[in-house]
Amino acid sequence: MKQSRFIRNIWLGIENLLLHKLRSFLTMLGVVFGVGSVVAMLAVGEGASKEALNQIQKLGSNNIIVSSIKSIEEESSSTQHSHMSIYGLTYLDHERISEGFKNIRKVAPAKLIRKESRLGSNTLELRIVGTTQEWFELVPRQILAGRVYNKKEDLESSAVTVLTEYGARKLLATRNTIGQTIKIGGDYFEVIGIIKSESGQAGNIQIPDQQIDAYIPLSTVRQYYGDIFSKRTAGSRTRELVELHQIIVQVDKTENVVQTAAGIERMLQSFHEKKDYEVNVPLALLKQAEATKRTFNIVLGSIASISLLVGGIGIMNIMLASVTERTREIGIRRAIGAKRKQIIIQFLIETVVLSTLGGIVGLALGIAIPCIITYFAKMPTVITVESILLPFFISVGVGIVFGLYPAASAAKVDPIVALRHE
Amino acid sequence: MNIIRFDNIHKTYEMGTQQVKALNGVNVSFAKGSFWAIMGPSGSGKSTMMNILGCLDRPTSGQYFLEDQDVSLLNDDSLSDIRLKYVGFIFQSFNLIPQLTVQRNIELPLYYLGLDAEESRKQAKEMALKVGLGDRLNHRPSELSGGQMQRVAIARALAGEPHIILADEPTGNLDSSTGEQIMDLLAELNSEGKTIIMITHEPNIAAYAKNRLHMKDGFIDSIEEN
Q1: In chain A, which stretches have pLDDT less than 50?
Q2: Which of A403, A397, A406 minimizes the C-alpha distance to A305?
Q3: Among A76, A116, A188, B67, which one has the highest count of C-beta atoms within 10 angstroms of its own C-beta?
């Protein structure tokens, strides 16, 4: 009985709002856009941070990635003709890292060289990753066909290669995949396996693997291509001597990651004259990403509260005008016997219905926008239950907060004066 | 038996720095089932009297007994309750709510009395039939003539089954023949036992009432009682 009266009051409120359809609609817009933009922004933000977290997790949360970088002095002097830059991580660094730290479980060194490859009429520029079989344990990727190479093949400098799915499609096309021989640079390699690759960026570190990778045992790469290679950039030829481009380190426990990374950094510092290396910790990035997400949410929350505040003020403004316009109606109701409380409830319900309807329309908008973004911009968006419930309840709250004052001023109307009101 | 008794009622308004004495010690009783016309020039205090009678306003001093209950000191909520249960208002300018249909206007007191939707629909329909507007239930006030609007107002005043009908110049906005029809309706209600108190300044309208009370300067000037 009590509940049916509540529903009846809501219907009476809706009927009253429908008397001024355009006005009610325009009043609602503030909340519609407020809630809509909040839901949409949360979805986009959630999508972006989820993707960043995903990427970072692909790096491995127990891993430390040590990379060679060209120091700034090298960068500027390398524009000179026929200069050879020598920089980066060395084989010795690899040994020192492997043996010098008790918390380190596995280490995978890598040489990265770009080479043209060919099979029949198919050509593809590959990134040769000369590495040991540990790589496949530290950067675990699904094996689609065949196998990855083993320790024996590494030691014997076998001419074998593992391609990515992308490389295999481009080069091998419809031919038999495993056992096929392809030409990389001037040498021939047997394809023994195909793995799936994950590509992309995680924070400011490149994911270790790329689509155009071809994995070849490190000893084979050293033997075939040596340590010196030349690059052609903007007309000038530069030659570089880099022993190792990357060393991926796996630490035994997550708690030890940061400390071990600092140890490696200190060790490298003592052996390198220039800062031609960089130590990245995906775990730190993960924490940084989470902190960024928190900041992002605070900023979004502020924007949200401002837009909802504006929407609420819009509603309050119209309701105050409505109270003035309906002074006589209030007087009539009071003369008939309506209590102040009942007048308050009447106006409050109208405001809450207005803001709640605005909230519902806003939700629809806020769910539609991320779907459109994902469809056209191919950007991931994630709509969570909280990102729907929170703005919705806030819109109901806005109705109550901004409806109270107009409702109270309606109840204060003196029936004697109101009945004479024109 | 008296339904209403005024015992030395005073009402003073503050108008800026001035004090306006609208009622100056009024003593009067109205019997149950009587039909009174309150007359007097403007400023004589008859509107103030009506507001206090209808529990829209409280006297500054004195006691007002409504069905033997002293209502002069009740709070706002209790006065609302008294209006709802005991008093039905009829106004010169009808005072219907323009956006509501005839049906909804008549239902208003029933809504505040807490009747459920079905019951109040039924009763409102009955009231509309009683005042001769059974075919106008879904019209809005703007679609009705003045006489029809006043009939709606009467139906609304009757819906809550009040003991007293207070009519403030009920024919003031009507032409004379429509006014007579409305007065016939009020006289009929009185014959059914409703107590009716009416303000008017037209003697021919006041003639419908059985008793007449003349006011002057906040006092009762004279009483014609049958």
Answers
A1: 1
A2: A397
A3: B67
Contacts of A18 in chain B (CB under 8 A): none
Mark whether A199 and A312 lie in a shared domain: no
Contact map slice: A 230-269 vs B, CB within 8 A: none
Locus of tokens 């109705």: A399
| A307-339 pLDDT per residue, tens | 888 888 999 999 999 999 999 999 999 999 999
Residue B97 in contact with partner chain A when CB distance is under 8 A:
yes
Domains of chain B and CATH, by start: 2-224 (3.40.50.300)
**Pair (A17, A88) in one structural domain:** no
Flag if A339 and B80 touch (Cβ within 8 Å): yes
- Alpha-carbon distance of A190 to A22, in angstroms, equals 73
In this prediction, residue B225 carries a pLDDT of 83
**In this model, does residue B50 exceed pLDDT 90?**
yes
Is the CB of B46 inside 8 Å of chain A's CB atoms?
no
Residue-level pLDDT at A73: 64
SS3 B63: strand
Residues of B in contact with A340 (CB under 8 A): 76-77, 80
Tell me the C-alpha to C-alpha distance, in Å, between residue A310 and each of A298, A398, A402: 18, 10, 11
Compute the distance between CA of residue A351 and CA of residue A398 in angstroms, rounded to an integer. Answer: 9
Mean confidence (pLDDT) of chain B: 93
Using a CB–CB cutoff of 8 Å, tell me whether A417 touches chain B.
Answer: no
Question: Both A79 and A152 in a single domain?
Answer: yes
Q: What is the ipTM of this complex?
A: 0.95
Q: What is the pLDDT of residue A1?
A: 47
**With a threshold of 0.95, does the pTM exceed it?**
no
Residue A337 to residues A406, B76, B87, B212, Cα–Cα distance (Å): 20, 10, 9, 28
pLDDT on residue A233: 62
Whether A365 has its CB under 8 Å from any CB of chain B: the answer is no
Q: Does A204 touch chain B (CB under 8 A)?
A: no
Query: What is the number of domains present in chain A?
Result: 2
